[in-house]
Design a protein that fits this description.
The structure is a homodimer. Chain A contains 6 helices and 2 strands. Chain A is mainly alpha-helical. Chain A has a domain at about 10-115: Winged helix-like DNA-binding domain superfamily/Winged helix DNA-binding domain (Arc Repressor Mutant, subunit A), CATH 1.10.10.10. The radius of gyration of chain A is 19 Å and the shape is globular. The structure holds a DNA duplex.
DNA sequence: TGACTTTTGTTGCAAGTGCAACGATATCAG
DNA sequence: CTGATATCGTTGCACTTGCAACAAAAGTCA
């Protein structure tokens, strides 16, 4: 009967995990039920839509997925014809991955509802809330950045105006 | 070349997922490396420390884990001697689960560092930030609450002062 | 009482995950 | 040129997850 006053529901890591998972699962209904994509495949597709033809390594470093997960996601996407794999002419190790026409078409279909869902979330926040949320999330990331035991942040997830 | 200006790194669901996972993984070093607990087991133990002797169903409804996951977590915890399972005398279906002395001792050891890590995160925020974060998370949850396609919120995760 | 429904916890199974090891290619030192 | 080292993508494997099906116990209602 020592530590009984600790409330899991008030524990920040837990609360973040619950909220994040709730939102992610709801969002996945859009790209999973609609297009049969897993979260990893969704992230890869979205990344490709913006960053063009890139390697597995590049994707891995940008969307917070480990290498095997990216590799398998790309494999499945290629099987589905949504993505094309070419080996780089200058470096035989590298793979150049890009969206196919079908992949682009699919993304054109599922990106709008995904963005709409984000808007629905953002609409519940005031503009002050949105600014505060950005600031708070960045502050929390900074704590992790300073912690050598924490996994480093992906390159693209660091804001451009990352004033030290 | 249609939708190319969508930045995953600015997409709220993705940002929440990345931050949450980063924090969760760091936190898991405390209860995993130190005590061999998975996240599910950690949540079950913590819940038991506060809510005493409860059923699988009860845990399932409180800590955002599905029934099979709770069942298996409890099974492993029992094997490790951290938890005790008794069948209810009044209802043979029900299981009464409670921390063993060893479980309580273990929790006494790993709860302080976990709380300390949360404090480290909270210390990076101003008191205004903390208030804002509570408000923002609750607003986002409310959006999900209003969405029939979203998974409902666990009972304990709804603030007591949940003014409609 | 006796069939029907509901609830509780467990199990089966296919799919996904995380980590380490691997082969293949490229790079570099001597 | 050659051996050592590093990088890239894949694969193996043990483990976890999520969903649905399940048996057992309780509740329901004629």
């Amino acid at each position: 009967m020592t530590i009984c006053d600790f409330r899991l529901a008030a524990f920040l890591p837990y609360r973040l995990a619950v909220l994040s998972e709730r939102i992610s699962r709801r969002l996945s209904r859009i790209y999973e039920a609609e297009a049969g994509l897993s979260m990893a495949e969704w992230r890869v597709m979205v990344h490709l839509s913006r960053c063009g033809a890139v390697s597995v390594r590049e994707i891995h470093g940008c969307v917070n997925l480990d290498k095997p997960r990216v590799s398998r996601a790309v494999g499945r996407l290629e099987e589905s014809g949504l993505v094309e794999k070419t080996s780089s002419p200058t470096d035989q190790r590298l793979l150049v991955i890009s969206l196919s026409a079908a992949g682009r078409a699919l993304l054109d279909r599922i990106l709008p509802p995904a963005i709409a869902y984000e808007s629905r979330l953002l609409a519940a926040l005031s503009s002050e809330d949105r600014v505060a949320l950005d600031r708070i999330m960045e502050k929390l990331h900074r704590v992790m950045d300073a912690d050598p035991e924490a996994r480093p942040r992906s390159r693209l997830d660091i804001p451009r105006d990352a004033a030290e």
